[in-house]
Amino acid sequence: MKYTVSSLSALVILRITTGWHFLYEGLVKVTDPSWSSRSYLMDSGGFLKGFFEWIAENNTALTIADSLNAWGLTLIGIALVAGIFTRYAAYAGIILLGLYYLSHPAFPGITYLFPVDGSYFIINKTLIELAAMWVIISFPTSDIIGLERLFKKM
Question: pTM value?
Answer without folding.
Answer: 0.92
